[in-house]
Amino acid sequence: MLSFIGRSVVQKTITLFFVSIVSFLIIHLAPGSPSQVDPLNPKFTPEMVERFQKEFHLDKPLYVQYIYFYRDLFTGKTVSWKDNQSVLKKIWERFLNSLPLFVVGTLITWTLSFPVGIRSAIFRGGIYDRSATFISYVLISIPGFFFAYVLIILVVTYFHVPVIGMITFGIGDAPATYLFMDRIWHLLLPSMLGATGGIAVLSRYVRSQMLEVEGQDYIRTAKAKGLPPEQVHYKHALRNALLPFVTMFGLILPGLIGGSVIIESIFSWPGMGRMAYEAILARDYPVILTVNFVSAVLVLAGTFISDLLYLVVDPRIRL
Amino acid sequence: MIDGQTTNDRPLLCVENLKVYFQSNGEHAHAVDGISFEVRKKETVCIVGESGCGKTVSALSILGLIPTPPGEIVDGQIIFSGQNLIKLDEKAMQKIRGNHISMVFQEPLTSLNPVFTIGDQIGEAVYTHKQIEPEALFQYCVQLLNDVGIPSPKQRLNDYPHQLSGGQRQRVMIAMALACDPDLIIADEPTTALDVTVQAQILALLKSIQKKRSMSVLYISHDLGVVSAIANRIYVMYAGIIVEQGNTAQIFRAARHPYTQGLLASLPSLSKRGKRLYSIPGNVPNPAYKPDGCPFHPRCRHRILSCQKEYPGMCDYGEGHLARCPVLFKSKGYKASRIQGVK
Amino acid sequence: MVEKKLNNDFYIESPLPPKRTRMQEVRRLFGQNRLAILGLFIFILFFFCAVTGLFLTSGSRPVFDPAMVRLQEKLRPPLAKPNLDSLQPQEVPALGVYLMGTDDLGRDVFARMLQGAWVSLTVGFVAVGISVLIGIFMGGIAGYFGQHHIRTDQVLFTFALILGTGLVIANFTFIGTVFLLLCLAYIFYSLFARHGSTEKETPALKAMFHSNAVSIDTLIMRIVDIMLCFPSFFLILTVVALLPASIYNIMIVIGLTSWMGTTRFVRAEFLSLREQDFVAAAKALGLSNFRIIFRHIMPNAIAPVLVSATIGIASAILTEAGLSFLGFGVPPPHATWGNILSNGKNFIFDAPWLTFIPGIAILIVVLSFNLFGEGLRDVMNPKLRERH
């Protein structure tokens, strides 16, 4: 077990190292330069440009810049070029905004997908299965931004519920319950939007796993023992069908930093996705690289956790 | 008991004219096309046949385990302890499965759930049908494992299926089947997936258990060697019908159907040493495209014209020995009137 | 002792099921899945629309003009008749009516939709084509040659080559040329140098250079892992934002960032197929590796690739629409379904058709690809085929 952990950590660190190099190269080798050092930009005088370059080592060769950047990253001193704030602090603030969206979305997705998928599998071919399948297909195929607008029109016209932003503008000093309810209202639509696509995909996957397990011989043995159908499906079949999903738990981690750019744009939600998008447009290299690095760390950590979980959950795998 | 005579005469399981058809991909397959057999108390009955003849389907339909969208029990009845199992609803069947009739399957590795321990799975079988306290349950399971000959049962109960050998897994399956003291055990080729030496052990185990617990065994196999060792009575199946039935001596020494004769002729033995091994020419027919008349006629050396047109009835050779071939029946000099219209 | 010859002349054939060709088999299986047929049908319709749309809307005097601005006719609803008094003769729409209305600049939405159809089609197919090609290549190499190792000297050589080229490009000419010369020298050495083959012991240095560094399988899978560390939409967004906007850039970028799934599938299939007897037989016949991979193994491994390709086209179309929506992608005034929708979002209450028409069009096309892909998966999956 320990050797597996050790080997895994070493491999992932090496991958992380390569990821950092690749992302650095992509950013710096792309055409166009940050607005702060663009010679055509009228806002910055040549002296300012030169000072900027010296401060951020832009005149040094690439590998030196690389070392400087990562040294600053690990000591927490990276600074955004756009507004001079500390990058880590900026990311943390936006992360806290994205977090409730992510948590609620994931919760809705996972709690709804499983019953739908399991029921579809047990009553395969029935009305429930066929309609759930068709709805899933539609949800996977609908473009997110289109669906968002449809929902917004519906909700605003019929329910008169506020949808844009995180809190209603001007709510000010309303009592705490109002504030809380307001937050929930604003959270509802964007997280549901994020969840619908996820539910469609996940429930199909749950269904296909359940179907595969239900066809196995040990389910026939369970029936032959005279077990009631609830025990056959929910104890014997489900326990086996859930194995891959336990490992998928670990892979939720990278979603933390994902955040959908599109949803956040539509709802004016100040989250991570929007920040990364604006940073890309402004060529704010420190922010882009830091976000990239953090996301890579999360992906690798997520796969590591899911490998570990797989070890724990499946008795057939022992190292 | 004065009445003992009659109750002992009534068979434990009586299958009459069972027909199971499968509908898939536009093909209508007659997997089981009207078979009748019975199992009496304390006896071992074997159903013998090649792969694809419908023997597993027959066994599964006794317990109602045929998947119903493609498969369907079209006709017949299965009488067990006075009830027709086909007419019972799911809840009533659950009381019978594992309890009065239990089944041992062919592949022990895939037939055991890989994520639960052996103790879990055996205990479950017991707990569902009997009311035993949890403390007593453990002891009961240990005793079961002892009965099937697994060493150090207390440790084994906490093991997972993949940690046991093939023979041990099959013993565990037998233990699960025995858990509630059934009247009938159906064994579907339990030794096919095992080594020959282990095979012999499992067969010996089945025999001793049967004697000890006074159970009946319905044993499905394609291996005549195995069958000769344990069977009291044998039914030979071909293409979904029973072509010959009788006790072991009658079948092995005086087979009266060309198919059975062909099977026996193709068994390797010392007397055939150095000679070419016989095999029945041709192949088992596709269940969806069976020949007219007698299903065996394309491969039969005794075929006459009427074999291609008329479906043969069972011919009675006396003392429970029946064979479905009027040609051989007549050629042995039996009177035509003894041909029964039994299907 | 004469062996008695067994007379098997009595044997006649049992009736056989009707022989079906592979095509008939596929058609029959497909026929059972109505939704998949519907998907295929809609796809053919879409393809036809896109191709004719390209011809009808391009050139200097197109039949349906997507770029003609008629400010006096802005935001007309679908099926509205044009106001003939205010229009010049060449500005009147071809069919005498605005089939899908006009946008905020008075342009004919129907013409723009036709133009955008072609964009969606090509982006989908080219992007997926690129990703499938890369995926098959990488997956095939990883699966087939997986256990072969790369020697240390080969690794060093590749590093030196890349470093040398990079340095030369970055104007460090001197150091760059030094590295490149080293590479050249190595090539000469390995090709022409006499090996002292009578020596039993290879010198330690040489042995170290010839040692195995990493297996091909590990190398390729690590590359896949690295690519997977980048959240895909961000990567596409980054590259598209940084590069000049053009349809080709988008296609290439989407293709270059979605090959990882195909690689995994192909590698898995190759790993299992490689152990099968037909490969051993082919090798025993002396066939070259190339021929074995492409002629024998590939047709068997192609099934999951086809399924993921169909679904990949759907996802590429959605991605392109998303990128257009955010403002990247094909530059205006060229229409894509994404930017019609993006324009329309500002007028959502006044002119809902600007949002709904492209949205529903995207939905139907993507849905048809997904249905077709799932139908393909059911057809090709032998396990699912037996059950009902």
Describe the structure.
The complex is a heterotrimer of chains A (319), B (343) and C (388). With 319 residues, chain A is mainly alpha-helical. Chain A is 74% helix and 0% strand. Chain A is globular, with a radius of gyration of 25 Å. In chain B, helix 5 runs parallel beside helix 8, helix 6 crosses helix 8 and helix 8 packs parallel to helix 9. Chain B has 13 helices and twelve strands. Chain B starts with a helix and ends in a 12-residue tail after the last helix. The N terminus of chain B is likely disordered. Chain B is globular. Chain B is of the alpha/beta class. Chain B has one domain: Rossmann fold. The longest helix of chain B is centred in the middle third of the chain and has 18 residues. By secondary structure, chain C is an all-alpha fold. Helices cover 65% and strands 2% of the residues of chain C. The interface between A and C is large, with 53 and 48 residues.
Query: What is the radius of gyration of chain C computed over CA atoms, rounded to a whole number of angstroms?
Result: 30 Å
Helix content of chain C: 55-70%
Q: What is the quaternary state of this protein? A: heterotrimer
- List the uncertain runs of chain C: 384-388
Main sheet: strands, sense, barrel of chain A: none
Helix/sheet category of chain C: mainly alpha
Greatest interface by residues involved: A-C, 53 and 48 residues
Q: State the end-to-end distance of chain A.
A: 6 Å
Number of helices of chain C: 15
DSSP, total strands of chain A? 0
In round numbers, the mean pLDDT of chain A is: 79
Strand order of the largest sheet of chain C: 1-2
The span between the termini of chain C is 58 Å
N-to-C SSE series of chain A? HHHHHHHHHHHHHH
Q: Give average pLDDT of chain C, whole number.
A: 78
Can you count the helices of chain A? 14
Reading the helices and strands of chain C in chain order gives: HHHEHHHEHHHHHHHHH
Largest sheet of chain C: 2 strands, antiparallel
Beta-strand residue fraction of chain C: under 5%
Low-confidence runs of chain A (pLDDT<50, min 5 residues)?
none
